[in-house]
Design goal:
Elements (H helix, E strand, L loop, with lengths): L3 H7 L14 E2 L10 E3 L12 H6 L4 E4 L8 E4 L16 E4 L3 H14 L4 E6 L4 H12 L5 E3 L9 H6 L8 E5 L7 H9 L3 E4 L7 H4 L2 H13 L8 E5 L3 H4 L8 E6 L6 E8 L5 E7 L2 E7 L7 H13 L4 H8 L9 E4 L5 E5 L5 H13 L3 E7 L8 H15 L2 E5 L4 H9 L7 E4 L2 H11 L4 E6 L7 H7 L4
Parallel strand pairs: 1-2, 2-3, 3-5, 4-5, 6-8, 6-9, 7-8, 9-10, 10-11, 11-12, 16-20, 17-18, 17-20, 18-19
Antiparallel strand pairs: 12-13, 13-14, 15-16
Helix pairs in contact: 1-3, 4-10, 4-11, 6-8, 10-11, 12-13, 13-14, 15-16
């Protein structure tokens, strides 16, 4: 477990005698636990420095700050030089005053990770990172003490916080790595030192921030570029995505291809969707064929299973361990089926949305029996691909949905393209917000209906699911 001495050592003020454990590292004072480390970061709405006192009141032992905060605690100024450490002067509660609190968080995280003998699996891509992280961690946990990012803590703040949760008992860490701008994944790799890199796919997600598809490819490639050479380093790449295949030339790690082609190292065939019962497929590896059925929703989920299996193989697990992980009910995957009004079934996929993932969700909807209702909201951060991406979804929705409900200005492109593709006006509803959707669906949805709800998280269609869900 991280210690106060390790924090000070990372910040250039070694005090090895300070062995007090840091119980948690947090940026939200409301989550503070006794003995924790609070990092005061400025945010878009609030500044963490306003909550230092609250963190200490809740039991924090130490806080990292980059401006002085008055209060009934000691302060150690680490902004210039390496002051001699008097252990009696930094007994908790204490603030550590640094030039930049975020840089200090990253500095401590990188230093701490280097103290530990743990193999790190990094995962990036445009779609499917979180589900792959969850399932790969489930597979590895069959043999190893494994840590993973909680939730979506996958950026320059969240990943360092995850690293600070490592302890000497951990043998593997599965870390999702998000991307918005070039250099971001390189920074995350510098902190975490991954041995295995998994790339899911490349699409136009986050085009608004990245600027171009080429910038997205370059940004995602930073993961494989920062892997160690073979045999220690392994790049697990999607053979079905040409942009990902090209990344093989950018790394000295061992290349492991997965996909639906027999040219890949690990590949699947005869993929069959079983609706809410999961998927069934044949898995092929080095001349061996396995018949698998796993509780993942939608035929597209076979790629998630392939990625998790590839991680298991790269880390030396047996097929018995890998299959047990793939079939585990513990992996918390994003799309969740819940009970709706009058016995309807609601597919909650409101965490995020991109054209590719929305098309996959519509494919799952098509597999299910009943009247199919697609509730689709804006897909954000698509940049120049924005209109085209929404229209692609609209064309597919026209083939699948018995009733199409769209929410938001961008989603009106979905409705427009659905009409062009043959869906009649009486089967389309265009709404402004979640409140209108809730009111409509309470009237429209009933027994035998299957309702897919999907949009970017910022649209907050999770409110629709929360209002319509009926406790089991």
């Amino acid at each position: 477990m991280l210690t106060l001495g390790a924090v000070l050592e990372a910040l250039g003020a070694p005090a090895p005698e300070l062995r007090q454990s840091i119980t948690a590292s947090l940026i939200d004072s409301r989550q503070m636990v006794p003995g924790g480390l609070f990092i005061a970061l400025p945010g878009e709405q609030v500044d963490g420095h306003q909550f230092v006192a609250d963190a200490f009141q809740r039991g924090a032992a130490v806080a990292i700050v980059d401006r002085e905060v008055d209060g009934e605690w000691r302060t150690l100024d680490l902004r210039s030089g390496h002051p001699p450490i008097d252990p009696t002067a930094i007994l908790p509660p204490v603030t550590l005053l640094v030039p930049d609190a975020l840089a200090a968080l990253q500095q401590v995280a990188g230093h701490w990770r280097r103290q530990l003998d743990v193999r790190v699996i990094g995962i990036t891509g445009s779609v499917g990172k979180s589900t792959t992280k969850e399932l790969a961690a489930e597979v590895l946990s069959r043999r190893f003490h494994t840590l993973k990012n909680p939730g979506n803590l996958n950026n320059e703040i969240g990943l360092p916080l995850t690293l600070l949760a490592l302890d000497k008992e951990h043998q593997r860490a599965v870390l999702e790595m998000g991307f918005y701008v070039p250099g971001e994944i390189a920074l995350l790799c510098d902190l975490s030192l991954p041995h295995v890199g998994v790339v899911t796919n490349i699409s136009q997600v986050h085009m608004e921030r990245a600027g171009s598809l080429e910038a997205i490819v370059d940004g995602k490639s930073e993961l494989v570029e920062n892997l160690p050479p073979a045999p220690d380093g392994v790049a697990i790449l999607n053979y079905d995505d040409p942009l990902v295949v090209e990344m093989a030339a950018k790394t000295e790690a061992r290349i492991f291809f997965y996909g639906l082609s027999s040219e890949a190292d690990l590949w699947a065939s005869e993929v069959e969707g079983l609706g809410l019962e999961g998927i069934r497929f044949l898995l092929h590896y080095q001349g061996e064929t396995l018949h698998l059925r796993v509780p993942l929703l939608g035929r597209h989920s076979v790629h998630t299973a392939l990625r998790a299996a590839a991680v298991g193989l790269a880390e030396g697990l047996s097929w018995q361990e890998i299959i047990a992980g793939l079939q585990s009910p513990q992996a918390q995957l994003r799309l969740v089926a819940v009970n709706g009004p009058e016995g309807a079934l609601i597919l909650d996929d409101t965490y995020n949305a991109a054209p590719s993932s929305t098309l996959a969700a519509l494919n799952l909807l098509e597999e299910l029996e009943g009247r199919r209702v697609a509730v689709l909201g804006d897909m954000l951060e698509l940049g120049d691909f924005e209109e085209r991406g929404h229209r692609m979804v609209g064309a597919r929705a026209a083939q699948v949905a018995d009733l199409l409900v769209v929410i938001g200005q961008r989603a009106r492109w979905i409705a427009e393209e659905a009409r062009r593709s043959g869906l009649s006006d009486d089967r389309i509803r265009e709404l402004a917000d979640s409140d209108q959707a809730i009111e409509l669906l309470r009237k429209e949805v009933g027994a035998g209906d299957v309702v897919l709800v999907k949009a970017s998280h910022g649209v907050r269609l999770d409110r629709v699911v929360a209002e319509l869900e009926v406790p089991a």
